[in-house]
UniProtKB/TrEMBL annotation:
This is Acyl-CoA desaturase. It holds the Pfam family FA_desaturase. GO terms for biological process: lipid metabolic process. One of its GO terms (cellular component) is membrane. It comes from the Bacteria. GO terms for molecular function: oxidoreductase activity, acting on paired donors, with oxidation of a pair of donors resulting in the reduction of molecular oxygen to two molecules of water. Residues 77-351 form the Fatty acid desaturase domain. It comes from Mycolicibacterium diernhoferi. Keywords: Membrane, Transmembrane, Transmembrane helix. The chain crosses the membrane at residues 166-185, 224-245. InterPro entries: FA_desaturase_dom, Fatty_acid_desaturase. Coiled coil: none annotated.
Length: 387
């Protein structure tokens, strides 16, 4: 038995194709539109109170965590401070920053919660994120050669991505991306895959690089220079605590995001098959390209409230992709209706606990490091030009 045989064995069975007639797609889209319109009409004080409570909790955790790290020479203080700061950074990125920048709270008219100007505590400039994520990813979800979230320009995450010897390093690249995730996200708008292919030069991305440098410099000075200096003789413990908190945030964010896009059962699409999409067909693509998480180990999402909050409710990635501008804390209740609609149309609803979904992601990363036994069909010239 060869190494290729061993690595191929855990791969998921081939996913059967799902399809909707144009009439079914229109009806499917109309039902989902009705959900969105009803929720948008119902937004109010309940939602405003929720996000303000989350922001208050995040700030309390950050201030408390940083204060405890100043006494980090005592192990219980260091552990508590690092944990609190790590959770604060997770909340800032996942439940606050990501969701606010989607415009989920623009209806409140609060300048501090405006998706167009919000800035978050991470290396990626918010304006670049709004383009690469809110526009590119959510418009062209799982379309190979269009959605740069398929591999982040670093990994091979689909058999439709042509294999090259570079991808033998897939598992190594994936691990580095996980522990350095904020920097991987920061480089997203750089389009490294196009630079490697010679389509553009690094000089073409001068403005993007300037924005990344300014934001990364600010974050680095804050966490690794300013706060350690304020701690005086306790600087090494503050430095280590900040680094560990950032690592916590990076690993957690990576796991949640990859489990929402790449576990067994998620599908990718070609440029050709998504041309002239109707609204219902766009919903159909969002559904097939996403997956939900029910919790760490549980298969019952209602039993994992804090898990969902810490994931930014991206544990309901299906609902997020269907309704990216609806406050994410609403996705749990919406999911019941979405699942029922999928059942009636004979469509899959990909959902499972974190350990199961992440295990399948890891298997995919390893399997796709190797060349395909049957080469994927080449893209047509028309498709390449459209990309």
């Amino acid at each position: 038995m060869t190494a290729h045989d061993i690595l191929d064995r855990p791969a998921a069975p081939e996913v059967r194709p799902y399809s909707l007639t144009p009439e079914q797609a229109d009806a499917f889209g109309a039902e989902l539109d009705a959900i969105r319109e009803r929720v948008i009409a119902d937004l109010g004080e309940r939602d405003a109170t929720y996000i303000r409570k989350v922001i208050k909790a995040q700030r309390t955790l950050e201030v408390g965590g940083r204060a405890l790290l100043f006494g980090g020479v005592f192990p219980p203080f260091w552990l508590a401070g690092t944990t609190m700061l790590g959770i604060a950074k997770i909340l800032d990125n996942m439940e606050i920053g990501h969701n606010v920048m989607h415009g989920q709270y623009d209806w409140m008219g609060d300048p501090a919660l405006s998706g167009k100007v919000f800035e978050w505590d991470t290396a990626c400039p918010a304006d670049q994120w709004r383009h690469s994520h809110n526009y590119m990813h959510h418009t062209y979800t799982n379309i190979v050669d269009m959605d740069r979230d398929i591999g982040y320009g670093i990994l091979r995450m689909s058999e439709d991505q042509r294999w090259s010897p570079y991808f033998l390093g897939n598992p190594v690249y994936a691990f580095l991306l996980m522990v350095l995730f904020q920097y991987g996200v920061a480089l997203h708008e750089l389009e490294t895959e196009r630079i490697r292919a010679g389509e553009i030069s690094i000089a073409d991305k001068r403005e993007v690089l300037r924005g990344i440098w300014q934001k990364t410099k600010k974050q680095t000075l804050k966490d690794y220079v300013a706060f350690p200096l304020l701690a005086g003789p306790f600087a090494p413990w503050v430095f280590a605590g900040n680094m560990t908190a950032n690592l916590m945030r990076n690993v957690w964010s990576y796991m949640i995001i990859f489990c929402g896009h790449f576990p067994d059962g998620t599908q990718e699409f070609s440029i050709e098959e998504t041309k002239s999409e109707s609204r219902g067909q766009w919903y159909f693509r969002q559904l097939l390209g996403s997956a939900n998480l029910t919790g760490l180990f549980s298969r019952r999402p209602e039993s994992a409230k804090w898990f969902h909050i810490l994931s930014g409710n991206l544990s309901f990635q299906i609902e997020h992709h269907l309704f990216p501008d609806i406050p994410a804390h609403r996705h749990a209740e919406i999911s019941v209706e979405v699942r029922e609609i999928c059942r009636r149309y004979g469509l899959p609803y990909n959902s499972g606990p974190l350990h199961t979904q992440f295990g399948s992601v890891v298997r995919k990363i390893v399997r796709l490091a190797l060349p395909d036994r049957t080469p994927a069909p080449r893209r047509t010239d028309d498709a390449a030009q459209a990309a």
